[in-house]
């Protein structure tokens, strides 16, 4: 999922006007020392996962497919081509590859911020170059595939922008707008599920010997919609509505993974208590105005580390 740059700018401006004074820069504030430690190992290489993580029976080549929750936009260090995909050297695919001791030639991260399911099979234009069809990185030699996608297909980032705008401008709650005449988000989830089924079949055709893992989304919003509704600039009801829709998206991903011969990686459960409303020292997801080096309403370095551990745990379940 990715909040568009223009949309993020509008939301940030509204927040600054409606909630609190903001500084002159629209870049995330520099991370504190604890966040830097979480993002970068002393050697500058991806941080190793805890030694107690299960030892998996997995090997490369490993191909990472997905959207911005896989790419890790804003987290140092930006890497890969095209630059417009905003991949991070400390996103969960890189952390996983390091934990598996894969050589550079055995790891291919082709995820891209803003990707939809259709971009798995077709080129994706970005502000800084074109990302080839992600499935083109697969071959009969591929042994491990992770796929994190679907949020952009249901327009989740746009839903957040709409709810924030409705909250700040004191409009009708966006939940009421989106459910008038039927729940349009549920329809999008169903359509995305059908597209995902086709994509999983294509992955298996291209990489018939690979273990395939569909990685779900971590909890972005809190269970208590009123806990930080003012900080999110949304009504408690809208926070609750969006949280339920994310859960429904994860349920679809789990069901389609199981039906399509893949394993589902649950990142929701380990992320509970680490949503965007938690303190900077605890959260995995940055709020609308990020305090750490990460994109708005996206995982920070701690969140990507948590997602990597969830993938490792699922790999270990099969060892």
Note down, in words, how this protein is organized.
- Helix 7 (184-206) packs parallel to helix 9 (236-259).
- A 5-stranded parallel beta sheet has the order 4-1-7-8-9, with helices on both faces. Strands 2-3 form a two-stranded antiparallel sheet. Strands 5-6 form a two-stranded antiparallel ribbon.
- The chain has one domain (5-17, 56-317): SGNH hydrolase (Rossmann fold, 3-Layer(aba) Sandwich).
- The protein is an alpha/beta fold.
- It starts with a helix and ends with a helix.
- It has helices at residues 5-18, 33-39, 68-71, 92-99, 156-168, 174-179, 184-206, 229-232, 236-259, 268-271, 301-317, and strands at residues 62-66, 78-79, 87-88, 107-109, 124-126, 129-131, 144-148, 211-215, 263-265.
């Amino acid at each position: 999922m990715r909040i568009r740059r223009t949309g993020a700018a509008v939301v940030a401006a509204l927040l600054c006007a409606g909630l609190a004074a903001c500084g002159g820069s629209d870049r995330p504030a520099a991370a504190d020392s604890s966040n830097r430690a979480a993002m970068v190992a002393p050697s500058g290489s991806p941080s190793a996962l805890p030694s107690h993580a299960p030892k998996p029976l997995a090997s490369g080549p490993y191909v990472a497919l997905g959207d911005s929750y896989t790419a890790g936009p804003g987290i140092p260090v930006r890497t890969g081509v095209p630059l417009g995909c905003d991949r991070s050297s400390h996103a969960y695919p890189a952390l996983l590859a390091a934990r598996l001791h894969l050589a550079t030639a055995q790891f291919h991260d082709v995820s891209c911020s803003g990707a939809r399911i259709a971009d798995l099979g077709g080129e994706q234009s970005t502000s800084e170059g074109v990302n080839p069809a992600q499935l083109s990185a697969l071959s009969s030699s591929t042994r491990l595939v992770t796929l994190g996608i679907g949020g952009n297909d249901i327009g989740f980032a746009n839903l957040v922008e709409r709810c924030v705008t409705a909250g700040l401008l004191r409009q009708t709650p966006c939940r009421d707008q989106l459910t008038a005449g039927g729940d349009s988000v549920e329809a999008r989830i169903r359509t995305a599920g059908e597209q995902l089924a086709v994509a999983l079949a294509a992955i298996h055709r291209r990489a018939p010997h690979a273990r395939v893992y569909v990685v779900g989304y971590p909890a972005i919003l809190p269970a208590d919609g009123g806990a930080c509704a003012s900080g999110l600039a949304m009504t408690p009801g809208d926070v609750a509505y969006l949280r339920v829709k994310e859960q429904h998206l994860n349920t679809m991903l789990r069901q389609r993974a199981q039906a399509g011969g893949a394993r589902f990686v649950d990142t929701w459960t380990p992320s509970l208590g680490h949503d965007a409303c938690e303190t900077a020292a605890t959260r995995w997801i940055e709020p609308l105005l990020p305090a750490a080096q990460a994109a708005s309403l996206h995982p920070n370095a701690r969140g990507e580390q948590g997602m990597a551990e969830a993938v490792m745990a699922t790999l270990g379940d099969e060892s």
